[in-house]
Design brief:
With about 200 residues, this protein is an all-alpha fold. The protein has helices spanning about 1-5, 5-25, 30-55, 60-65, 75-80, 85-125, 140-155, 160-165, 170-185.
């Protein structure tokens, strides 16, 4: 079950690549600094978040699993689990694990935000070179998504507002992927153009 709980972490490398490749196709003509660098940074950030944050959530289930383990017939075990000292130990340990998880994913969080800002800047200022991406694509930027998700959460009752805000990081990349996919499909661009020297549209 520990491996199943880490499935979110396994998915992130795949998600990172599937996010970066379409972005690279659209930004490639803007030059190396505005295509390769932010896309690689995005992949790095998403992989770190997946590995250090989502995969690590599984470890938060270990100590509570000890607490809920069937201990019928074992008097010493039942007394230990029921003692105030064990409850204090569990609270302290879980808090420390959460602290390490957040510190571990911080580089990934910073990398994703930096990559998102870099890509938004490239779309806004390099539209003549990166002709595939119009400036309005920035309406799908993770920063814009975070703004309207935060605003929408105030309009929803509990617990729906919590679910909406709790998935904010996922919403940001998902909406960006939707926008990029729409633009590339509208322009009839194929990912096979990665193997060509220039961007190629399908006939």
């Amino acid at each position: 079950w520990l491996y199943v709980a880490q499935a979110g972490g396994w998915m992130y490398p795949i998600w990172a690549i599937s996010t970066a490749l379409p972005l690279y196709v659209g930004l490639r003509d803007a030059g190396w600094w505005y295509s390769t660098v932010p896309c690689v940074l995005m992949v790095y950030g998403l992989c770190v978040i997946g590995g250090s944050l989502h995969s690590a959530f599984a470890f938060l289930t270990v100590l509570p699993g000890v607490y809920h383990q069937d201990s019928s017939g074992i008097d010493k075990w039942e007394k230990l689990v029921a003692s105030p000292a064990f409850a204090s130990f569990l609270d302290t340990s879980q808090s420390r694990i959460c602290q390490h998880i957040m510190v571990g994913c911080l580089p990934g969080y910073l990398a994703v935000n930096l990559a998102s800002a870099w890509i938004a800047y490239a779309v806004a200022t390099k539209s003549k070179q990166a002709k595939l991406f119009p400036k309005w694509l920035n309406a799908f930027s993770p920063f814009v998504t975070m703004a309207w998700i935060s605003a929408a959460s105030y309009l929803l009752p509990e617990p729906w507002d919590f679910y909406l805000v709790g998935c904010m990081g996922t919403w940001g990349v998902l909406v960006l992927n939707i926008g990029v996919t729409y633009v590339l499909r509208s322009e009839k661009v194929e990912l096979s153009s990665l193997f060509n020297s220039r961007s190629v549209k399908a006939d």
